[in-house]
């Protein structure tokens, strides 16, 4: 595997960024399906869903339970909802929604039911972003997860989640070495979150992202990131690797804009401002600012 190690800047992905066009409508912008969370973690789903809608997916449908449907209906009227109470109904839904992008994991609960849902979705759906509990539910049998991943999938672990699903990778080596080993094991796209986030492609390219802020060390910021990335993947959009690079850079820029006191909801509020600057071409290799 020939490894390329480069810095993340808009130059990598901006020419392919899926801006809304005059003839676009909500269906041409693609549909994102978000696996809803447990009742006490619905905020994770809402953060992912809102960030995805703001960045550009045409519609989002949240897969809810009987208990969570009233919560999502009250707190997020612009998102579609589907009540799914068991694996059988999830299977039927998936068969009708095979071409959509799926986001699974945030707030789902690291348990056997989440594992069964994750396995079902990964087996039947092409483009899937796997985060949080949909990763750690495989910690006892990580090789089972590896077999379900491929070049069309993205996983987005933070360091603790990373080592729970890659127990064979030593903790005392560099993150770059960790990423190389993880890509060899999974042949998928990986976002290893941290002060310097690494984005690895299934075929060995690694991009490092320093365009960020320490203010992102707050609950919910990872849910916002997963929504950002997921919204950019699909037909007439970016491939999973470039979507991950773009999502990570934008996420960092949003935090840099806000500064101290940031919470996850603030990241979402800043999305229009960063998108406007990107669309107008006001960025440089070092970050965002006026072009010379």
Characteristic key phrases:
292 residues; alpha/beta; two-stranded antiparallel ribbon; 12 strands; 16% strand; disordered C terminus
What report would you give on this structure?
41% of the residues lie in helices and 16% in strands. The protein contains twelve helices and twelve strands. The strands form two sheets. Strands 1-10-9-8-7-6-5-2-3-4 form a ten-stranded mixed β-sheet, sandwiched between helices. It has a two-stranded antiparallel ribbon with strand order 11-12. Helix 2 (69-75) links the parallel strand 3 (59-64) and strand 4. Helix 1 (42-55) packs across helix 9, helix 3 (87-96) runs parallel beside helix 4 (112-124) and helix 9 crosses helix 10. The chain is globular. Residues 285-292 have low confidence and may be disordered.
